[in-house]
Amino acid sequence: MYARAATVAPWTLPAHATLFTGRYPWEHGVMGDGQLRFDASVPTVPALLRPQGYTSLALSANGTLVPFLAQEGAFDAYRSAEWWEKTFRWLRPEELDLSPRTRSRGGRSTMSLLVSAVARRHSPRLPTDLIQTPHPTATLFQRLSSGLPEVRPIVPGADSISWVAIDGLNRIARGIGFPDDPRPLPAAPWIEGTLEAWLARRPADQPFHCFINLLDAHEKYLSDGEVVPGLAAWLRFIRISQNQRRWLQGEWSPSDEEFRLLRELYERTIRILDRRLGAIMDVLRRTGRWENTLFVVTSDHGQAFGEHGELFHERSPYQPLLHVPLWVRWPRGDGGGRTVRDAVSLVDVAPTMLAAAGADLPPGLPGVALDPYTTPPRSTPVLGMADGFPCILHYRHTLSAAVVERLQHSYAVAYVGGVKAVVGLRGGETQCFDLDSDPNEQHNLAGAVSPDIEAAFQAARTVAHRIEAARGGTVDPALEERLDSWGY
Length: 488
Prior knowledge:
Layout: E1 2-6, H1 12-21, H2 25-28, E2 30-31, E3 35-36, H3 45-49, E4 55-60, H4 66-69, E5 77-80, H5 107-118, H6 140-145, H7 158-177, H8 190-200, E6 208-213, H9 230-237, H10 244-249, H11 256-286, E7 295-298, E8 304-305, E9 311-312, H12 319-322, E10 323-324, E11 326-329, E12 340-345, H13 349-356, E13 382-386, H14 389-395, H15 401-407, E14 411-416, E15 419-424, E16 430-434, H16 451-470, E17 474-475, H17 477-485
Parallel strand pairs: 1-12, 3-17, 4-5, 4-6
Antiparallel strand pairs: 1-10, 2-3, 7-11, 8-9, 13-14, 14-15, 15-16
Helix pairs in contact: 8-11
């Protein structure tokens, strides 16, 4: 276990692009601050493993990852959830005849989905029937926009009202299907079965690389029957908005009790993820792959519940969002039970996998290949960034100009020893924290002097310059549409 792992950015797309390439956002091109366009010339992990005889599969509960999963030359096959699978959890894609209209958010698509749910397929498809392969001639725009009609705006208040209905329907479905289990239904429950069916079709000695994204811990949160028991507690729960636009605009200020309840629901989802990780391990054991598998568990970002005035994620440079879990289980359990307290990063995941598979590492990778027994020395500090792009993008038509201005701040981050330095890109403001003595980042040491503080600020300022240099003002229109369709 790596106790001091850091993500490279506090939101989904840049962090995943780093997992797939081993590069920082200003290197692979996926960052919200002025640029959101993946550099297809950057080699990906599945492409680098292919010469070693590896086949690859990606299974994602988050549909915004499709641009990476469907990229030609990356994964050999993939399956990604549709936007409604996180909300209408009792519906199973294998049992529905889905029209293109159900692939985007909005009133008409929701009605099309519900009509499909009533007229279920007579012969449900197999889990592997919905696996796709990248189209060799499709452009990024074609991959994303196929079957994605224009996203229609929702009338004021409709988002909160619809979430009340969705939570109520999920509670009813859970009570009917699983009366003894008070936990919310899992998001994209087909993942474990699809993995097992896919592995069963491959020779036992076929090396494989599989990426799995689980979305259960992502907001908005459904009520848990043990945390929110009974009608009276549920009526109190549904008054919690969970509407990020209202929070950003200052129209909703969560109380301490609301923050406490949201955090508790979040922690309950971690238990769901723990159970699902156990199921994935069981799949690997049943198919005879577990002992020889490198198994990496991590997260693209953390989650905030009031710390430093933040809610959920996307734009904060503080530890509730940038500190992530990282657990590595090497084949045969080598080095098991060790806790490493040195700073590590998501940029280390790709070289670790490539080195374990005997593949050549691309020159210039900023991360290090971790191993079961030692902590390799780093030539450069662990780095990162934070910006507010997703929330600005999704709510740009409903936020005031003053709020948009406040959100358009970006930060460069660097870790040296136990010191963390933060530099603002616009005003040059600086913050520094000793994470050993001040893990909650309450005491700014920007005026203090020490070798680690000086080195951390030097690295953070270098990152700021690199981010500025990488800005191209380019945003892939289809990627923007995909973010919109998923509520980002």
